[in-house]
Each structure stands twice: as structure tokens, then as C-alpha cells.
Amino acid sequence: MAASALDTDTQGKAYERLIVYLFESTPGCIAEPNVISAFGSEQVDVAVGNLRVPDGPALLPATLLVECKDWSKPVDSNTLGYFINTLRDRSVEVGLMFAGHGITGDPRDFTYAHSLLIQASARGIRVLVVTTDEIAALTSSTDFVNLLNRRHLRAVASGMGVPR
Hints:
alpha/beta
């Protein structure tokens, strides 16, 4: 996997390619990697188009933005907050944070980065967090679709798009 790359930049690019592969292998999805804003000031790791076919992630909206962070530690509040602002600035209601080791804080206490998920949800933005362990457990595109649909459903119902 991406973890075997020689340096962190190569590792990050490998992780992004893995995520693109997952979406391109998912029924009804197309993926556009490394999209730079018109002014060159922002970068989106992966933009995903979801055609919402029956065997695809039909519960998710038509357009998703993806941030990939295959870090050796959980993603912090600053990084998650920046991603949430990117989603807000583009009027995208669902983003996916592929975070190697999750995000900082405790989901039960809504601390650190977890608090931002609740705040974003109150503004109509949901960030679904997927870890490397969850990716490694996938055995098919159906597993990936189920993970995304269930994570989104849980985010809508609870206000938090994190693993249980």
C-alpha cells in the first residue's frame, strides 16, 4: 500500500492514487485527481462525480470532494477545518476525509477535530472519515459502496461521519 513508499510525498501520492482507483472501480463514479483552483491557491486531492446508479453509493450526492491524509498520526483540527472551508466555499455538502489514522479527539466527547464535524453538520456540510484500516478491510467495490452509504447515513442521523 502507500505506506511502503520511500518518502512522505511519494506516500501521499500513492494514497491519492489508491483512492482514485477505489472510486473509479465503484459503479457510477468518476474521479478527477489533483484539481487546482482557478487562482492556484487551493488544491483538491480528488473530485468525485457520483452518477447515483443503483449499485453505487446512491445515498451520496452527485458531487463529492476528497482529501487524502495518509499520516502516521490523526488529522488535526486545522487540516480538517481547512477542508470544511473548501467544501463550504464550493457549496459541496459532502466531503470524504481519507485519514490513515482518523482524526484527533474523541467522538464521544466531541473534542478537537471531532467538534468540527458537529459544527459543519449544523451548516449542512458532512465530512465522512475513512481510515486506512477500513480501506484494508475492503474485499470488493460492493464493500466500498456499503461503507460509504452507511457512513453517510450515520452522519445524517448522528451529525458525525466517523467510524463507530
